[in-house]
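quick one: N-(aminocarbonyl)-beta-alanine bound model?
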Amino acid sequence: HVNGERLWQSLMELAQLGATVKGGVCRLALTDLDRQARDLFVRWCEEAGCTVTVDGVGNIFARRPGRNASLPPVMTGSHIDTQPTGGKFDGCFGVLAGVEVLRTLNDLGIQTEAPLEVVVWTNEEGSRFAPCMMGSGVFAEKFTLEETLAKRDAEGISVGEALNAIGYAGPRAVSGHAVGAYFEAHIEQGPILEDQGKTIGVVLGALGQKWFDLTLKGVEAHAGPTPMHLRKDALVGAAAVVAAVNRVALEHQPHACGTVGCLQAYPGSRNVIPGEVRMTLDFRHLEPERLDSMIEAVRGVIEATCAKHGLSFELTPTADFPPLYFDQGCVEAVRGAAAGLGLSHMDIVSGAGHDAIFLAELGPAGMIFVPCEGGISHNEIENAAPADLAAGCAVLLRAMLAASVA
Amino acid sequence: HVNGERLWQSLMELAQLGATVKGGVCRLALTDLDRQARDLFVRWCEEAGCTVTVDGVGNIFARRPGRNASLPPVMTGSHIDTQPTGGKFDGCFGVLAGVEVLRTLNDLGIQTEAPLEVVVWTNEEGSRFAPCMMGSGVFAEKFTLEETLAKRDAEGISVGEALNAIGYAGPRAVSGHAVGAYFEAHIEQGPILEDQGKTIGVVLGALGQKWFDLTLKGVEAHAGPTPMHLRKDALVGAAAVVAAVNRVALEHQPHACGTVGCLQAYPGSRNVIPGEVRMTLDFRHLEPERLDSMIEAVRGVIEATCAKHGLSFELTPTADFPPLYFDQGCVEAVRGAAAGLGLSHMDIVSGAGHDAIFLAELGPAGMIFVPCEGGISHNEIENAAPADLAAGCAVLLRAMLAASVA
Ligand SMILES: NC(=O)NCCC(=O)O
Ligand SMILES: NC(=O)NCCC(=O)O
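yep, here:
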């Protein structure tokens, strides 16, 4: 049904913007490279006959009219920002699968009942600005526009400033929009589909997430003449926290993750006892009580460690998403489309957050996963098979068509 | 004997160059601020009637002639580079105590038998370029000039390039110089003198040091969909190493230190499992076998940790100084000077490396410690009492005078 070759070509063209020597992409949210990628998306959608609008947090909506303009749109989308050492498919696949749906409908001369919209959501990754899924969060009224525009990156630049700098602070209202249905295609970003030899993951729901910034403070002093027992070494404390995050996640299986992604010791000199460590904590679980239990266990270790080593700490929440189960109708639509196309498929739970999780607040939502090589994502070597991507796109087309007449 | 007020004024003037808002100094080796400090030292020494020469690694020698030009010089000195978040006294006290000795001898119209030299040694701290005590190491032929000029900082700038950039690659030969005696005054950088209520530390020797760079490599992947048991998390491995360095040092008491001063996780994104960690290890001990035993114990933990977490590692030595005992005559000279001046004093072992350690290879050497507030050094809040500094300088003057007629 869809043109897999054309989808692949567009993915490869988009991946040039921010291409890294290791074959990945570095295109952080709201940088000039992000602007170039946005401009390319806008051009492609206009060429496909869509009307493009941009809202106040930079989300881009490409609308293909339906027969009945009063129906809420059937939407799809994802993101085109990447991790600092990201790949070509995370997010971009979902957006360009949406563009391929538009192009295929044009090829086939199909007009849908409800209008369709393909959306680029701002800053899904959350690596430059926390939290992640920022644009869809504002759209779903989980975050206010005001607080979001004030969030700052590590250099102190705010979301509002960055949006203005790239010309993507648009006039469209950020909230109050009706959603007929929302589907999002995405690479799995984990090893399960590949391991099970399935082409399509029918996504039942997603792990809840709680993120924190943690700062530990001790006293910086000379690494030679300062006796071991008199030290207040912030890094020795941080090491105990890293070990605890890992251990606690192992103790809370199944469907539990705990990760320290960022950690930096200050002042960062070979012969200076670190007086400060800044780190991030990322906890995920499918059950809300178990998610909280992980965090309480780690908080206990932080308190005990600080008491033992004479440190102080600050623990600041930076993101909080409850576990989510997708709409049964959408889950059925994805399963039915995969079955109808004769594609091998299985039910799966998403370990990652996705914009679909926020869209599920506004209307029925579902997701389609396809395998990625070795389950590796958030890595420059991220890879996916053209045939799997085309299959995921075909499932997306079927599911959207079904929803647009329902 | 010496002018403590003048010594303090010079210390405060030098501390302006690279002064930080927290009251410390950031004047990394071979930066333009280091050049400014060097220029000031040269001006002060020329004003005190000395001839100033610079060698190929940027060491600066200010020579005050003696009656007998054929005698090898009695030397003193230290360094004026600082830690990134360093203080006003570490190194600078030793250099300016030397300048104050010159000025006092001029005031008193004293001519010594042997010539005197006050030296600024290049890059003692080792924070921008490893290893530490670089200039004195080349002078003592522990390092070759060629290998030293090729060492690079984190930005890839070599020592040779940095020396040329600030105009301190001098014509004087870097080695082959006779040393009549060498004394160095320094703040203790630890809490012992303050704790014992003594003004002067008679330094018997110094801990041996072995430094390493350690890189751990795993696989970066998504913090959500990557199951805990399939991760190759370099930071979880690094945390075990940090804990081991600390534990092993505690197990090797007394006179044992183990410190991880630098640690950075890559790529450094909240929701990415770190695929690489780069860190530094600093081990110190007074007994060579116990120093090696610490390192072997930590190496065992590194190997076991990497095996457990599917990581690879690279452990590269960056500095290696054996424990050292100073010349008995010089130790006696310092003890005698302190006693003669009626100053409270005690024997002490240096936990830090000092240029005197390399000078001890070329001739009799000794050191004089004075207390620093709270034992804190390598910290912007480093502080010392003017009276203690003047006392240390007076001991230096006596010890040098005794050596110059001996
Ligand atoms: N899909 C994805 O990479 N989302 C980023 C947010 C997360 O870390 O789950
Ligand atoms: N004295 C001093 O800070 N030396 C730097 C080398 C060391 O770390 O011991």
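Residues 199 and 388 of chain A are 6 Å apart (CA to CA).
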